[in-house]
Amino acid sequence: MKIRLSDKEEKKVFNLEKSIKQWRKSLNKNEALEDGYKEELECHLRDKIEHLMSHGASEEEAFQEALGKIGDASHIGGEFHKTNTRHLSGRPPWRKSLWMPGLLSSYFRIAFRKVRRQKIYSFINVAGLAVGIACCAVIILYVTNELTYDNFHKDVDRIYRIATHRINIVGEFWMSTTPAPLALDLKANYPQVEEVIRVVPPYENASHVLVVQGEKRFFENRVWFADPEIFRLFRMRFLQGDPATALVKPNAVVLTKEIVEKCFGEENPLGKTLQIELDYDIRPVKIQDFEITGIIENSPANTHLKYDMFISMATMLSNLSDFNEDWIIPKAKYTYIKLNPAVDVNFFEEQIQQIAKKYTDIYEERFNRKMDLYQYFLQPIKKIHMYSSNHREIEPSGNWYYIYIYSIIAFLILLIGCMNFMNLSAALSTMRTKEVGLRKVVGAQRRQLVWQFLGESLLITILGFIFALGLISLLLTFFNEMAGTELSLAGLKQPIVLLSLLGLLLFVSIGSGSYPAFILTSLKPASIFQGRLAPTSRGSMMQKFLVIGQFAISIFLVICSLTVFKQLNFMRGQALGFDLEQKLILRVKSNLGYFRRNYEAVKKDFLNYPSIIGATVSSSVPGDKSDSGYYMTTKKEDFKGASRLKVITMDYDFMPEYGIKMVAGRSFQREMGNDETGSYLINMAGVKELGFNSPEEAINKYYQASYHRITKRIIGVTDDFHYRGMQEVVEPLVMDIEDSLMNTLTLSITIENMDGLMAFVKNKWNEHFPGVPFEYSFLDDDFNREYRYEKQMGRLLSIITTLGLIIACLGLFGLASFVTQRRQKEIGIRKVLGASISDIVIMLSKKFVGLILISVLIASPLAWYSMNKWLQDFAYRIDMNLILFVIAAAAAWIIALLTVSFQAIRAASASPVNSLRDE
Amino acid sequence: MVSKVLAAASTKPVILSILTRGEIYGYQIIQNVIEVSGGTLEWSEGMLYPVLHRMEKEGSIQSQWRISENGRRRKYYRLTEKGRRELELEREQWMSVHKVLSKLWKPLPALD
Questions:
Q1: Nearest CA to CA, how far is A51 from chain B (Å)?
Q2: Same domain, yes or no: A880 and A824
Q3: Is residue A833 domain-resident?
Q4: Which pLDDT score, from 0 to 100, does residue A413 have?
Q5: In this structure, is residue A144 part of a structural domain?
Q6: How confident is the model at residue A537 (pLDDT cuts 50, 70, 90)?
Q7: Which of chain A's residues have a Cβ under 8 Å away from the Cβ of B45?
Q8: B86 CA to chain A: closest CA distance, Å?
Q9: Res A820 pLDDT > 90
Q10: Residue B41 domain-assigned?
Q11: CB of A799 within 8 Å of any CB in chain B?
C-alpha cells in the first residue's frame, strides 16, 4: 500500500543518491580534484556507507558519518596539497594569506586619513570615549584601592587584629579594641604567635596631639603609640633610622616624610628634638621633648591604620605606670598579631579565650562584682576595611554600596561613549562601502576586513585613552575631594589596574568597532558597485536603538540627579528644631581640665564683645555624630534591662541659645539652684524609650545614669530636634549638666564686623588657651558637611549627567548632521516644490523626537525603582512624583530637539541651488 | 593512540605491507589498518588517497580500475617490483629502530 506523504514530510525523507550527487558536485569547487580522484572518493564514500549500514545505521546516519570522516572539498584538497608540498604552514596556494604585513601601511594611512578628514566626527568619538574611559579609570582606581586594603604587608595572610566581643545584660558588642596587657600574655604564653604589637591612640576619643617645633605649633592627627616591633609586622619603609631600635627608648618618635617636610623643611631631622604635648587622659598636660629616631614613607591610602607619627610605647609606660595592668576596660588599644605558619586559626582563637576567662576570674574575686563576659576574636587584617563593623573602628569601613553605585555610573558613562562611537561609525561607514567593495574585489577576505575595522576602532580607542589620561588627573582631584579618598595617579601602575585598563581597551574597541567590522564586511561587492545599497533596515534599526539607549541612560541620570537634589533640599529645608545660623563653634582639644573648671568665666570673658550675643558650653553640638550615651535605670545600681539614651551634657544656656522648644515641664534654670546636681531633660523619643505614654507622665520621675551613678529627676521634655542630622530618625536623648564631658564652646554672633569679631575671639582664645592653635568652625558649615555623602552623590550625579547628556547630544548632533547631509538633494527638491523651512525642520526632527519619547518610557520605570530604593535609607524623605519625570523628559526632549533642529534649520535654509547643482 | 608524526611516518611502510597481501582498494586499506592496529593507528580518510597517488607516481604501486561484484567502478592497487624493494628497505630501517628501542627498554643490568 502506498502511503501518501504530505509535502512537508516528503521533503524530510532522506534520499541517499541525491545527497551523494550533491556532495560530488560540491567537490567541483576544488579545481585541483580531477574526475578520477572524485570517482575514487565517491567509491570510498559508498563503501563506507554500506559498511556502516551493515552495522545497523540508517542511510542518513551512515551518510552523515561517512561525510564527516572524509571531509569537504577544501579539506580533501588540503590533504592532497600536504602530501605534495614542503610548504611549512601547510597553506594551499588557493587559500589567501590572512596576514599581509604589506597592507598594514595602507590600513594606517586610511585610518589616519579618516580621522583627519572627519575632524568633527572624530572629535566626538574620541571625546566621548575619553570621558567614559577616564570615569572608568578613576572608578577602577577607587575600587582597587578599596579592595586592596592592607594587602601589601609581608605574610599578610598570617596577620590578624584581635578584637573583643563583650556581652553584658544590656546586650552584646563587638569592639576593635583589646586590653593593653593582652599582648604581653600572648607573647609570654603562646608560641603560635610570631609577633604581637599594640597600637594606641593618644586619647580615648581623639587622636590629635599638639606638636611644637620652634615657632610652629599645630595639631597633628593620626598619631599612635606603638610597640617597637611594629616595623617587623607592618610594611613601612624607613628612609632614615633603624627600624629595629627606633621605638625602643622612651620619648622616641618616628615621623613620616610629610611631617618632616612640614616641621623641618629641607633639613635632616634625624636625632633632633620635637616637642609634643600629651596629657594621658587624666594627668595634667605635659609638653615633653621627643627624639626623632626614624623617618618613614608616608602612609599609603589603602590601609585602615593611617599614620603620621609613631611614638614609642615606652613613653606611655613611663607616664602611665599601670598601663600594662589594666585588664578591665578595652579602651582604645589595638592588638595586632602575626601567627606562625601552619597555626590553626580557629583552634588558636578558642585557646585565647582562656586569657579572658583567667583575668575575669581574678577581677571578680578581687572586686566581688560580676564582670561582663569578654571573648576575643581574630580579624584578618585584609578584611578589616570592607568587613569590620565593630565599635571603635579606626576609620569608617568601606561601603559596598558606593562601590556598586560608582561602578554602575562609570559603566553607564562608558556605555554612552561607546554607543556614540558605534552610532557614528555605523553612520559614517555607509560612506565606506566602496572601499570595502574594492578591497574585496582585489582579493581581501572578510576576515581581513574585520580585522582592519576592529584595528581602526582600536586606534580611535587608543586616542581616547591618551586624552583620558589628561582627564584622569583632573577627575581624580575632584573625586578625592568629594569621596574623601587619597587616590593618586601612581595607583595606575599597579598590575591589576593596568590589566583592567587593558581589558577596558579591548572591550571598548571591540564593542564600538563591531558594527562596521561585522555588518559592513558582509556586503557583496557586486551589490555595492551596482548601488543597490539602500540603507539597510538592519543598520538603521541599530542606529535608532543606539540613540534610544543613549538617551534612556541620560534621562535616567537626569531623573536620579533631580531626585538627589530634591532630597537634599528637602533635608536642608526641614525644620531642624534648633537654631543653626550664626553659631561659632570652638572645640577645646587641649587644656580641657582648665576649660571644664572655668567655663563660666571663659564664657563671660567672650561675652564682653558686643557682637557676641550668647555663649554656651556642651559636650557636643547638633550635627555631631557623637555616640556617647547613658544607661538609665529607675532601680538602684541595677542596670539590667536599662534603656540607653544618647547624651548631650550642657550648661544652663544651651537650651535658650539653640532655641530648643520644650514640650512639657521646664528647661534647666539657674534660679532653681540645684539643676546641675538633680535634673535631667529628655526628648520625646526618650519619653517613648523609657516607656511613658505622654511627656507629662515622664516629669518628676527619678533615674540613675550609668555614667556617674547619680540619681536625678526628669524636669522637662524637649521637642525631637534633629541633633544628628536629617538622615537619621531622632534617637532617644537625655540632657544633663555634667562638667566632665564638656569640650565645646558655642558663641552666638551677629555678622557685622566679622574681622573685628574674629580678631577678638582669637585674642581671647590665646589668653585662655595659651599655646593651643586657634581653630574654629561655623555650625551651619559643620552641619551641612554631615550631608557630605548625599552632596557627594548629588554632585557626582550632576556632573555625570551633564557629561552623559553632552556626549549623547554630540552623538545625536553627529547623526543628525549625517542624515541631513544625505538628504540634501531631497531637501533641495522639496524646497523647489514649495516646502517651507519649518516643514523641512519638522520633517527632519520628527524621527528623532519619537526616539526620545521611547527613551523616556524606558528610563522612567528604572529611575523610579532605583531612586525609591535609594530614598529608603532616609528617615525623612520626599515622595517620588510625576513632575520630576516630566521635567526630565521635557529637558531631554528640548535638548534633543535643539540639537537636531540646529542641523535641520541649517540644511533647510540652504539654497536649493547649491544642493541640486550637479557638475 | 599513535602520535600524528609517527602515524604520518609509518603511512608508507604500512600501505606497502598491506599491499603484499594482494590487490586491494582504498576503503579496504583503511579497514585493514583499523583491524590490524586494533584502533591505535587512526588515519584520516582524506589523507589516504593523496598518499596512494603519490606512491603511484613514484612507481612503487600500480592502480587499475575494475568493475566490482556490485557493478561499481573501483580502483585497485597492487605492489610493483620497485615497491617490494622499497618495502625491504623500510623493513630494515624500522627493524633497526625497533632493535635499538627494545634493547634500551630491557631492564638495566645492575651496575656494581
A1: 10
A2: yes
A3: yes
A4: 81
A5: no
A6: low
A7: 44, 48, 69-71
A8: 18
A9: no
A10: yes
A11: no
